[in-house]
Specification:
CATH topology: Jelly Rolls
Order of helices and strands: HEEEEEEEEEEEEEEHE
Largest sheet: 8 strands, mixed
Helix content: 10-25%
CATH architecture: Sandwich
């Protein structure tokens, strides 16, 4: 009887954890692609969770990781403070933060536009970037500085390793895989 009670409690806890977490996955990525480059963009609305962690959909980058990538972002509120990170994966299931600055690309993004390279920090290239198959961005609202009316806009520019036809969006962008 005790074992059944313990198992029931563990099951209830396991089911409740995703509801209690403040991680938001598979935020929509808009793709504009031609034979030479890919432009990714998105809008994250912090209305439901001002200090949450928002992950974009996974983007196929195996044909985009020869040249540097750039990320630009801004918030619509001057007092906002959102940090942007990059993560890489080979299978969309296991994700690794970039090796430079723990994957942090932009710090304290507010109403002024901020931009920087995704894969280069202080003239050092991230060792995961050239071998990455999938990439996603993570945006984290900082406590006390992001209000519920904050909209966060971002855009990334990646040049193709070689000129090629545009991929279909369904092949370029996918939701993360879960177990």
């Amino acid at each position: 009887m005790k074992m059944r009670t313990i198992l029931t409690l563990l099951l209830m806890l396991a089911l409740a954890l995703p509801v209690l977490a403040d991680d938001h996955f598979d935020e929509t990525v808009t793709v504009r692609e031609d034979n030479w480059s890919v432009t990714l963009s998105g809008l994250i609305n912090f209305s439901g969770d001002s200090t949450g962690t928002y992950y974009t959909q996974a983007v196929y980058v195996a044909d985009l990781n020869h040249y540097s990538a750039f990320l630009a972002a801004f918030a619509n509120v001057s007092g906002a403070d959102v940090n942007a990170y990059v993560e890489y994966s080979k299978d969309r299931l296991t994700w690794h933060a970039g090796t430079l600055s723990s994957g942090q690309v932009l710090d304290q993004v507010a109403a002024a536009l901020k931009a920087d390279t995704v894969n280069v920090v202080n003239n050092t290239e991230d060792v995961l970037y050239p071998t990455a198959v999938w990439m996603r961005f993570k945006f984290v609202g900082q406590a006390g500085s992001v209000d519920e009316n904050t909209a966060f806009s971002w855009m990334a520019q990646l040049d193709k390793s070689y000129p090629d036809k545009a991929m279909k969006r369904s092949a370029r962008v996918k939701d993360r895989r879960t177990i």
